[in-house]
Amino acid sequence: METRKPIEALSAEVIKELERLNYAYNTVCGLRASFKRICAFAQDRNELYFSENLGKEYLKEKYSCTTDYYLESFPPKAKQAIRSVRLLGDYQLHGVVIRRIKKRKGYVKPPQFEAVLTAYEKECKSNEYSLRGMRTRLQRLFFFVDYLSLRRVADVSAITPEIISDYVISIYPNHEKSIGSILTTLRVFLRFLYLNEYIKQDLSLTVPKQNKYYYPPVPSTWEPDEVRRMLDAIDRGSPLGKRDYAILLLVAKLGIRAGDIKALKLSDLNWTSKTITITQQKTKVEVAYPILHDVGWALIDYLQHARPLCDTPYLFVRLNAPFEAFGENANLHNIITKYTRLAGIAIPRGKRHGLHSLRHSLASTLLEQGASLAVISEILGHVDSKSTSVYLHADMKGLRACALDPEEVLLDD
Fold first, then answer.
1. In this model, does residue 146 exceed pLDDT 50?
2. What's the pTM value of the predicted model, to 2 decimals?
3. Where do the Tyr recombinase domain residues begin and end (predicted)?
4. Which residues are known catalytic residues?
C-alpha cells in the first residue's frame, strides 16, 4: 500500500471512501470543504504531501488548538478541522476510514469473524466474567474487529504483526488508561486464538506494552456535609423519593455497589437477623451487610408506601409500567446527579460524582475514624486489600499527621 500521496489525491480518495461507506451527504460536503482548506494551507507552504506535522501546524495557526484534543479543550469551531486532520492521517497510514469509539447497541459481527467471536464469548462466560466486564471487554474487541474488516482481512489467520502495529498506532488519541485496557483486551484475544489453533503464531507477544507505570488515581470523595445535604434534598413524601432515598442510603452507609443494588431481591433481606446477604456480582463473594436503623426504616417506608405491586423478585423496580427491575445497563447515575443539583452542590470539573463516589466517601470517612484497611476492605467487598490502599491518599488529615517537622529533624541531629 502506497503511504505517500499528494494531498489533493489523498483528500479525493477519503471522500470517495466516505461515500462508499454511506456517510450522510451533508457530512461529506462539510468534510470536502474542510479538506479544500487544508489543501490550500499546504499549497501556501509549498507542501505536496499531507503529514502529521502539517496537520498540527494547520490546527495551531487556524484554530489555536492542537491534535491533543483528547487531553485539552478545544474551540467548538475546530471540531470539523480536527476530524478532517485525523481522517487524512488515518487514511494515509492505514488506507481505511477508522471509526472512532462510540457506543453502539446491537453490534452486528462481520460474517468472516462471527464464529470465532461467538467462541470467544463462550470462553469469557466459562471464565465467569461479570456481565459488566463482558460488555466492556467485547466492546473494546469489536473496535479491533471493525479495523480488521476495514482492512479487508478475510480471516483471523490473516492477522499479521504489521496489522497489529498499525492498529495500535490508531488508538493513540485515547487516554493512557484506555489504551492500557485496549491493549490488554487485544492481548487476551490473540492468546485465545493461538491456544485454540485459529492462528499458528502467538501474536499476543507482538502487542506492545505501555512504558508508563499505572498509578491508581486518588478516589473522588464527598464531604460528610455534602452527603447530608444531598439526602436532605430528596422529597421523601413521593414514591420516587422514597425509592431513591433508600438506594442512596445503601451506597452511602453500607457501600453497596450499584450493580449489586440493582440485583437485590426481596429474599436477600433478613429482617430477623437484620442483615442483607448477597453474592457480589463483581467478586462472586458472599457478603452480609447490617440493616442499620436509618437504612431499615428507609427500606420499610419504600416497601410499604412506594413499591408497586408486581411479580418481580427484585427489591427496586421502575415506578412506571411495566413495573420491573432496572435495565442491565442502567448505572443509576441520574439519581445522584438529580439530588446533587437540587442540593446546590457544585461539582468541580474533572471530579467523578457517580454512585461509586459515595463508596469512596464511606471508605475515607472510616479511614479518618481510625478503621484499618482490612476492615474497610471487608466492608467494601474488596478481594484484595491493595484495592483499598488507594484511599490512603484521600485521607489528608492522616497524611498531615504523619508529616515530619523539619525543625524537629534538625534539632535531633
1. yes
2. 0.51
3. 217-404
4. 257, 282, 356, 359, 382, 391
